[in-house]
């Protein structure tokens, strides 16, 4: 093939026109082309044959599981092209698995194999949620202010959308600890197609007030507020962090672990690249 370029090279050196459409696409630009590093290749026949067969089976089963999961994920998103790509990878791994299992049963030699690093682009989406759902999980409090073994606490939530009627919720009370584990989920609704509500996401925050339960004839005591900026959901569909408790600009001490999920980001798709060590039998 390289000799076929000689005439083109000479022509360009002389300033003559050439037909660039006849130049073949370099293999590294092909979508199915995978670059294999020498360090990632494993010689077949090394070590105990039975252990090698077991490792190959385990890795192929993992690949089949990855392909099945990703295929179902993309089908739920309506991305048939990506789902078909993972279906193809899964079928290849299933065929390789049958080969390995048959060779193992018949006591044959371990076939040639190598590992590749494959890069997959995954669209992050919580398909278990509706388009207009916002799910908040209050996980736990961390070192809340108060007596460690004598604090009964709960959390009040306020989702500021719609403006005229903010949505509210409240956790149960966890007793006798300043590290309470709540693990409660709440669902709020918003209108993804409403421009005014999307503007509220830019300006407003989800507020979680932590309170200590009062005793007999004593009022509940405010411990602090954790605020989560909703603007982050324009580009991501998951916020999961520990937020400091504040009273205005004053830190109160302690934190609240909270997880916020929506189906997909409000403005853009969230695409993440993952690398998988991929087993290939033969070659």
UniProtKB/TrEMBL annotation:
C2 domain span: 114-243
Highest taxon listed in the record's lineage: Eukaryota
Gene3D superfamilies cross-referenced by the UniProt entry: C2 domain (2.60.40.150)
Extent of the signal sequence: none
Pfam family, one: C2
Molecular function GO labels: DNA-binding transcription repressor activity, RNA polymerase II-specific
PANTHER family, A to Z: COILED-COIL AND C2 DOMAIN-CONTAINING PROTEIN 1-LIKE
Name of this protein: Coiled-coil and C2 domain-containing protein 1-like protein
Organism from which the protein derives: Stegodyphus mimosarum
């Amino acid at each position: 093939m390289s000799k076929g370029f000689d005439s083109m090279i000479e022509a360009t050196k002389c300033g003559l026109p050439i037909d660039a459409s006849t130049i073949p696409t370099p293999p590294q630009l092909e979508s199915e082309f995978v670059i294999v590093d020498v360090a990632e290749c494993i010689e077949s026949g090394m070590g105990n044959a039975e252990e090698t067969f077991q490792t190959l089976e385990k890795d192929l089963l993992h690949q089949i599981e990855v392909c099945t999961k990703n295929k179902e994920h993309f089908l739920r998103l309506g991305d048939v092209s990506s789902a078909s790509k993972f279906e193809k990878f899964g079928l290849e791994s299933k065929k390789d698995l049958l080969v390995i299992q048959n060779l193992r049963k018949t006591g044959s030699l371990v076939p040639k194999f190598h590992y590749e690093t494959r890069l997959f682009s995954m669209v992050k989406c919580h398909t278990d949620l509706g388009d207009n759902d916002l799910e908040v999980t209050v996980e736990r409090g961390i070192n809340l202010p108060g007596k460690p073994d004598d604090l009964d606490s709960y959390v009040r939530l306020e989702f500021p959308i719609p403006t005229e009627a903010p949505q509210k919720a409240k956790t149960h009370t966890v007793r006798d600890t300043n590290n309470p584990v709540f693990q409660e989920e709440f669902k709020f609704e918003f209108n993804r197609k409403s421009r005014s509500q999307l503007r509220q996401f830019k300006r407003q925050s989800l507020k979680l007030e932590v309170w200590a339960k009062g005793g007999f004839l004593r009022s509940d005591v405010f411990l602090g507020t954790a605020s989560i900026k909703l603007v982050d959901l324009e580009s991501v569909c998951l916020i999961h962090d520990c937020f400091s408790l504040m009273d205005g600009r004053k830190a109160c001490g302690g934190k609240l672990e909270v997880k916020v999920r929506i189906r997909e980001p409000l403005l853009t798709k969230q695409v993440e690249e993952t690398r998988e060590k991929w087993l290939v039998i033969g070659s």
